[in-house]
Design a protein that fits this description.
This protein is mostly helical. It has a single domain, classed as Tetracycline Repressor, domain 2 (Orthogonal Bundle). The chain is built from 9 helices and no strands. The chain is elongated and about 60 Å long.
Length: about 190
């Protein structure tokens, strides 16, 4: 049901992805969706949670084996590239749910909770790499994780909205910026 909802959101937006269309796309009865999720808002939040968990698992798998700041930068760049290659529904969901959250406090609270959870998990990854001496954290880990996430989302939004955007050079420039922030100071030249 989640995959069907994601596809429909990509084609029709949140409002256009009705329960009737979701049941047709997923091949299930309307009662099944109501039983599993209760409401469309809960379905959307569960989709967001599932997509976030999958994205975080991919991030952890990419960053965990990194033994240098360069490898961390490569892993983060690959995550942004992968995010760009996701189904359009993932991006529409994030953008439209953000707008809904501004009007509906319950959705806003749930969305904020998801973002805080993401930042905390990402911060733990960054802290682990810093403890290994792979990167240097120039500030508080959760704030840095939030900033890097916003940076990645901004890059993705720009790439999706600008048909002339040259994605590869943009991602490489972003990678270089992140490396300048995370790369440990070179102490081998200290006299």
């Amino acid at each position: 049901m989640l995959a069907a909802t994601r596809r429909l959101i990509g084609r029709h937006g949140i409002e256009g992805a009705t329960f009737d269309l979701i049941t047709q796309e997923a091949g299930v009865g309307r009662g099944t969706i109501h039983w599993a999720y209760g409401s469309k808002e809960r379905l959307l939040l569960e989709l967001l949670k599932a997509d976030g968990a999958a994205r975080f698992d991919a991030l952890r798998a990419a960053v965990a084996p990194a033994t240098s700041a360069e490898e961390v930068g490569d892993a983060l760049a690959a995550q942004v590239t992968g995010f760009l290659e996701d189904e359009l529904g993932v991006h529409v969901l994030l953008q439209e749910l953000g707008s809904v959250a501004l009007r509906e406090p319950e959705i806003g609270k749930a969305l904020a909770t998801r973002r805080v959870e993401w930042s905390e998990l990402f911060a733990q990854l960054l802290e682990a790499k810093a403890a290994e001496g792979v990167i240097e954290l120039p500030g508080e880990p959760a704030m840095l994780a939030t900033l890097l996430t916003a940076f990645g989302h901004g890059l993705a939004t720009n790439a999706l909205l600008d048909p002339d955007c040259e994605v590869e050079p943009m991602i490489e420039s972003a990678r270089e910026c992140v490396l300048r922030v995370l790369e440990p100071a070179n102490d081998s030249n200290a006299g």
